[in-house]
Specification:
By secondary structure, the chain is of the alpha+beta class. 46% of the residues lie in helices and 22% in strands. The protein has three domains: 112 residues, Trigger factor ribosome-binding domain (Alpha-Beta Plaits, 2-Layer Sandwich), CATH 3.30.70.1050; 96 residues, Chitinase A, domain 3 (Roll); 164 residues, Trigger factor, domain 2 (Orthogonal Bundle). The strands form four sheets. Strands 7, 8, 9, 10 and 11 form a five-stranded antiparallel beta sheet that branches. Strands 1-2-4-3 form a four-stranded antiparallel beta sheet. Strands 5-12 form a two-stranded antiparallel ribbon. The radius of gyration is 33 Å and the shape is extended. The relative contact order is 0.11.
Length: 431
Amino acid sequence: MKHTTKAAEKSTVKITMKFDAEEWKKAQTDAYLKTKGKFAINGFRKGKAPKSVIEHVYGKGVFYEDALNLLFSDNYGKILDKNEKKFTVVGDPDVSVEDLSDEGVTMVAVVPVKPEVKISAYKGIKIKEYAYTVKDEEIDAELDRLLDRNARKVPVQDRAAQNGDIANIDFVGTVDGVKFDGGEAEGFDLTLGSGQFIPGFEDQVVGMNIGETKDVNVTFPENYQAENLKGKPAVFSVKLNSLQGKELPELTDAFIKDATGSETIEAYKTKTRERLQANADRKANDDTENSILEAIAANAEAEIPQAMIEREIDSLVQKFEYQLMYQGLKLQDYLDFLKVTLSDFRKNYEEQAKKNVLNQLVISQLIKEENIEATDEEVDAKVAEQAASVNKTAEEYKKNMDPRQFDYIRSDIVLTKLFKFLKENNEMYQE
């Protein structure tokens, strides 16, 4: 077998495979040996008919398809291995037969490959750097949430509903006088002011009295997930069955110690501030890295194969599906509720997928351009750090490590080095 590779349009490579007469004849014989058991020929036991007899009965080309498949499967992977330094395959090949005769066969595979990225600038760019400082109000809000989680629910009888109450309601929603899926429930507990329902709904329940029925007029947001309800005015007939208020515990050092383990209110505030600031710092770092990527990607060009975009869409949809699973929902049930097909749902992710793929290509190209690597010493130091966090020696920790963990650590070190380099070589500013 002889083969050639040639760059083609839209980030594809054309692989041409030529097989001579002897190779083609052997492939047909191999196909015969592999499939002869499925042919029933009068005068022969099943699987015992000679190749020539089967060809006479079913036609000369009876084994062609299987023979072509054998030739391709036996040689395609080897060709990719030989050319691994020239291109990286990112999707399935489109295979065709260019020539076929007793003298041999020529097959062509057009395969999507990782594209080259042209980056016009990645140094000296003015890029926004993010920094977040935890405010006292955020600490107070954490305290409020702690009190709320430990509140006692008490029945309310002598007043109207107010924000913070748990309202038990029956409701029936209609659009243009017609009920819609998901717009009806009985005995539903709604915390007023939580923002769980569409804007305007909870505000109109506030002020209702137990036993009262009221029409609540709202408009579904333009970005509402159900296509048939986007921007539509709706009327909900709401009945208030009962109310529960919340009786908050007194904020004391004793309560804090019992609820959190911290000795005092001030100790809890200090620990909370440290935790929130650590989260804020991580978010600032992520936002800054995204800012850097956006700035560089704006100066980048790449002819991205659709196969790479589809694979990224697969990843985004799968991530969303996992989120639904945590809520006890199935993706198909979610799609049925929205009345959309999976194909249309996937289209919502296309632009994000293109952006993600371009960013990944930019990162890969920059690592290559700057020859950024993770040394064995750096990997060992990171492993030792992780081992220490669980009170183990590095040797003990390594025994239970999956090889993919080492790959992840190496990749993380390289990315950290890359963004450090980019921060140092661009004009970072804060607003």
